[in-house]
Each structure stands twice: as structure tokens, then as C-alpha cells.
Amino acid sequence: MERARRSLICAISLLLTFHNAFCFYLPGVAPEDFQKGDPLSVKVNKLTSTKTQLPYSFYSVPFCRPESIIDSRENLGEVLRGDRIENSPYSFKMREPEMCHVVCRLVLDDKTAKEFKEKIEDEYRVNMILDNLPLVVPVRRLEQEAPPAYQQGVYIGVKGQYSGSKDEKLFIHNHLTFTVKYHKDLQTDAARIVGFEVMPFSVKHEYDGKWAGNTRLTTCDPHAKRTVSNSNSPQEVEANQEIIFTYDVEFQESDVKWASRWDAYLLMADDQIHWFSIVNSLMIVLFLSGMVAMIMLRTLYRDISKYNELETQEEAQEETGWKLVHSDVFRPPSYSDLLCVYVGTGVQFFGMMLVTMMFAVLGFLSPSNRGGLMTAMLLLWVFMGLFAGYSASRLYKMFKGTEWKRIALRTAFLFPATVFVIFFILNALIWGQKSSGAVPFGTMFALVFLWFGISVPLVFVGSYVGFRKPTIEDPVKTNKIPRQIPEQAWYMNPIFSVLIGGILPFGAVFIELFFILTSIWLNQFYYLFGFLFIVFVILIVTCAEITIVLCYFQLCSEDYLWWWRSYLTSGSSALYLFLYATFYFFTKLDITKPVSGILYFGYMLIASYAFFVLTGTIGFYACFWFTRLIYSSVKID
Q1: First and final CA of the chain: distance in angstroms?
Q2: Computed over its alpha carbons, how large is the radius of gyration of the chain?
Q3: Is 440 helix (H, G, I), strand (E, B) or coil?
Q4: For residues 162 and 148, is the Cβ–Cβ distance under 8 A?
């Protein structure tokens, strides 16, 4: 009784802890309170550009530096994203405004001027972090009453022209006006940071006399209450030019509570498009569901009743349609080992996606946890190797296979090795550009360890367990001599039907795909995991139903080679995904460098390959269930 009582107390404590965790947007992360005058340290992250897609560390460009540069510890996902979080010379004191604080003075030589020019030409942005909030630039929307949109990071500089001149010059943003928003606790007078915004300006600072450590500027002076409010006299980037970096900081009290501080960042103005996407996808699902229901409840019911009522041999000879191929429909396909491997890999992907979606919907993968989504997906992929091995070996044993170790080895290596080779080549290209996006040797070793040290053994364990299970018995016997397949109509051509089958699954997701690509390649927030989960469920249903419908038509045409075609039917949606990614590249992105283009198509090739494996496996299992169901319902003499 005492042990039971203790267990009950522990369970209640855990539930209370879990309940309290949901008071905030990310379970397990506690807010930090700041008293007036407490130091606030601004950290800098990578420089990013939507034109090159190559991140660089902040200090790869000759910005102002602190006395010593200290790297923050990044998680696996952050390193793979190219994040490099370091300290900076920007330092504030809580609720103590500053005006025209001089950070440093630089005199450009040919080399530093060239570095700044290249980054401004490529539209690189500086990313900063304060209390785990990213720096954003508020951008007014066309609708006056609408809240502002937020642009991540601030451009290093801009292209422009002097008035009366046609020559294009490059100007640097050397003055930043920060706004730190805080929510104050009226009882304790402590405050929590709920916003970090900036307005950049380019100003050619001036001063009297020679430069010294305490020189007062004439262009902005806290003593004379002279502030920078425009870029009418901008700072040009040229060799031998003097650049003085300054900043203002003001503190603004906000009604936004700490738990809701990310809401403004994640606000999507066009959420009606997502609802339109879901309604559009649901129409596809309803159409397919109607067809499947018609097949299952009317056609199949009539066919099965008719077949079961056949009594004489003469009547049996008049059989037509899918019943005729009952003795061949479960004949093992060509390259059955490869099919087992791809099905196992698809199960691994499905498990990873499903669990990731569930965690994301519950709020465990908040954008405040940088790299959390990628880290979670990698770890889940590794541990889902257990189910990959299990499902591959179960199918392999059904095909009368005996060498389970061989199928386990192929399952553990085929897909990961292909992706790793592409990733390694892309990483070498990034190394050649000296970008912070290149994965360091230590991280590469960690990835290999996750693969060989955890994933591969789990695949073998799963295969061993699956192979020891009883063989999946076919509902009908298979003849030794294969039946000849009659000539098929043009619309039942394998290539044509496979290509047609991929259109509807792609159509169910392509609108949401636009927002995902925009998030990845245009450096925007994406946190609509509720929408994404609904679309994922719709994708599963669409893949299953379109495969069942086309499989039924194929069997009615007396073509029993359905194994691979069921996988390829829904899997062909990956082809349309890659074609859409190509369309997106030429219409939405402004990538001009060859290396950046290779990176884009390399990563989208990996994504399309993964989508093929995922959707193909869903279609295969749907068709597998369907064929076993209909043939087990028919009396076979």
C-alpha cells in the first residue's frame, strides 16, 4: 500500500509539472526577470542572404569586435543550419535608454571595403539575439490598421544613388536604433523582454578635431539631444573611408506577456490561404473517398456475391475481372528485396514525420528553440530504424526470403548512404565558399556515429524481431506457372497510370509546400504546425485512396503486377514536388551564383527522394491491405 501511495504521489507531481510546463509556449523553458539597470548582452548570429543561401559568421566581415570573442554552444540542429552564436560589443542596461553610443571607428582599406561591398551586393543581413529573441525590422503592411510584418535581421547596407547622380553606390548601415519591449510586473518591478526591434540608418558621422576615445560627434549627440532619424547624409563604402558605428536603444513598455511574445513574430497575415488549401485538399479526399466507397460497397459487393454464387464449371469459366488473377496476385514481384528495403525506409520516415508533427503541434518545437526541429527529426529518424528493420524483414519473409541479415544491411544503408553522398558533396562546395554553413568535422563524426552506432544496430534488431514473427500467409494460393497478362488499354499503361496517380497527392499539399519553401529559402518563420498536421493527414488519405482506385482498375484489367506499381503510383508525387521546386526557383528566388543553385537543387533532390519513399510506402500498404481484403472475401475452389 505504501509503495502504491508513493507511486500515486509521484504521478500527480509529474502531471502538475507537465501542466505548469504548458503555461509557456515551450515546455521546460523559464522566463528571465530583469531589474532596472541589469546588464543585457546582445549576441550575434550568422549573416544570411536569400540571394546566395550561404551563411557566414558575423566576424567573417570586419565589424566592431569585443575584447574577446566567445562562442555559444550550439546544438546539432543549429550547427547543421549554419548558426554561429557569439558575443558582441552591443551591451545595454535594462530600462536605461542610451543615445548615440559609439561602438567603434574603422578606417577601410581595399580588402575590408571589398568584403563589405560583396556582402551588401549579395543583400546579407545581420542577425542578433537578445534574451533568446531574434532581432527584427518592423515593416508596415499595405493595410493601415494591420499590425506590422517583421523581417528577420537587418541588412548590412543598401544600394543607392546621390541626388542628381546616376552612379550607383553602396552605403552601410552604421547606426542602429534598437527598441527593447518589456512587460513589467507591477508587484516586483521586475520586467521581462517581449520584443527586440531595430531601425537601421546610414550616416556619415562628423566630429570636430582629431578622433580620440571621448570625441563627441556632431551628427548625433546625447548632450545636445541630437538623434539620427534619417539617412539623408549616408555613409559610403569605399577604401580609405572612415566609418563610425553607433547605436541608440530605447525601452518600451508592452502589454504583451512573456508567454505570448512570439505571437507577433509568427503572425501570418494570409492564414485564409491555408484554410483554402485545406478545403481544396478535402475536396480531393471526398472525391476519392466517394470512388473508394463505390468500389468497396457496390462493385466489390456485387462481384464477390456473384463469384461466391458460381456453382457449375461452365459458369466458372465465364469469370472476368480481378477474380481471374487470384492465383497470381500474390506472386512475389521482381526485385522484391529492393521493394522490402524501400518499404522499410518509408516506415522509418512515416514514424519520424508522425512523431515530429505531434511534438510540434503540442508546442515542443517552438522556434525559440533554434535547431530543435532538425535535431528532433534526426534523432527520431535514427530511433525509427527499429521499425524500418521490422517492416522490411516481415515483408521479406512473406516473399520467401531467408537471408534477413542481408535485407537488414540494405535497409540500414541504401537510403542513408545515398543522402550522405549528396550531402557530403554539397558540404564540400560550402567549404569551398568558406561559409559557416559547412558542417565541421566533429559534427560530421557525430552524424556518422548516429548512423553506424545507433541506427544500424536498431535496424538489425528490428529485422531480427520481424523475421522471427510468423510468416504473413496469403489469402489465396499462387500457381507455379504465371498467367499471361492480356494486352492493356493505353490508359492502363504503367508509366501513364503511375504519373497520373501522383498528381492528386501533390495537389493536396502544394499550397502548404509554397509556405514551407518560403520559410526555408526566404528566411521566414513557419509555425503553422496545426495546418501542416491536417495537410499531412489529408496526404496520407489521398495517397492511400488513389492507389486503391488505380490498383482496382489494374486488377480488373487482369494485370496482377501491382506490387511495384502501388509504390510508384503515390510515390510519383515526388516528381511533381521536384518540378514545383524548379518552378519556385525560377519565379520566387533571386539566386544567381552557380554554387547556390547547386545547393538548392541538391537539397530539394534529397527532399523529393524522401517524399517519394514516404508517399510510396503509404500507397503500398494501402494497396496491400486492399488486395488481401478483397481476395480473402472470395471463395476459391
Answers
A1: 61
A2: 31
A3: coil
A4: no
The C-alpha atoms of residue 60 and residue 111 are separated, in whole angstroms, by 12
* Torsion of Cα atoms, 540 then 541 then 547 then 551, to 10°: 140
376 vs 326, higher pLDDT? 376
Residues 393 and 111: their CA atoms lie apart, in Å, by: 60
Q: What angle do CA 438, 26, 362 make, to 5 degrees?
A: 100
Of 196, 208, 205, 197, give the one whose Cα is nearest residue 231.
205
Cα separation values, 439 from 109, 376, 421, 518, Å: 31, 18, 14, 23
What is the distance between the alpha carbons of residues 375 and 617, in angstroms, rounded to a whole number?
Answer: 24
Gap between the Cα atoms of 301 and 194, Å rounded: 62
Q: What is the pLDDT of residue 450?
A: 93
C-alpha dist (Å) from residue 167 to 157, 171, 173 = 17, 13, 19
| Of 523 and 498, the one with more pLDDT | 498
Residues in the chain: 637
Q: Using an 8 Å Cβ cutoff, are 92 and 249 in contact? A: yes
Question: Can you tell me whether residue 590 is helix, strand or coil?
Answer: coil
Helix axes 594-632, 573-588, angle to 10 degrees: 150
What was the pLDDT predicted at 306? 64
What pLDDT band is residue 17 in, cutting at 50, 70 and 90? Answer: very low
Cell of 358: 505531434
Q: How far from the centroid of its chain's Cα atoms is residue 317's Cα?
A: 56
What are the DSSP calls for 29-92, one per residue? -----B-TT-EEEEEEEEEE-TTT---B-GGGS-----SS--BPPP-HHHHHHT---EEEEEEE
- The grid cell for 282 is 478535402
Residue indicated by cell numbers 552601410: 172
Does residue 310 have a pLDDT over 70? no
Helix (H) or strand (E) holding 378: helix 372-383
pLDDT tens sequence across 395-445: 999 988 888 899 999 999 999 999 999 999 999 999 999 898 898 888 899
pLDDT of residue 28: 39
Element spanning 154, H or E: strand 154-155
Lowest mean pLDDT of 13-22, 139-148, 173-182, name the range. 13-22
E strands of 341-450, at which residues?
A: none
- Helical (H) or strand (E) element with 245: strand 242-253
- Specify the residue for cell string 560583396: 118
Strand partners, 47: 56, 126
Q: From CA 134, how far away is CA 125, in angstroms rounded?
A: 12
Antiparallel, parallel or unpaired: β 175-184 and 39-48: unpaired
Looking up cell 472476368, which residue turns up? 320
How many percent of the chain have pLDDT more than 90?
40
Residue 175 CA to residue 464 CA, distance in Å, equals 64
User: In this predicted model, what pLDDT tens digit does every residue of 43-75 receive, in sequence order?
Assistant: 999 999 989 989 999 999 999 999 888 888 878
For residues 166 and 163, what is the distance between their CA atoms, to the nearest angstrom?
Answer: 8
Our measurement of the distance from residue 87's CA atom to the centroid of its chain's CA atoms, rounded to an integer in Å, reads: 28
pLDDT at 353: 94
Cα 185 to Cα 166: distance, rounded to the nearest angstrom:
54
In sequence order, which residues have a C-beta less than 8 Å from that of residue 37 and are 6 or more positions away?
93, 94, 95, 96
User: How far out from the chain centre does Cα 403 lie?
Assistant: 37
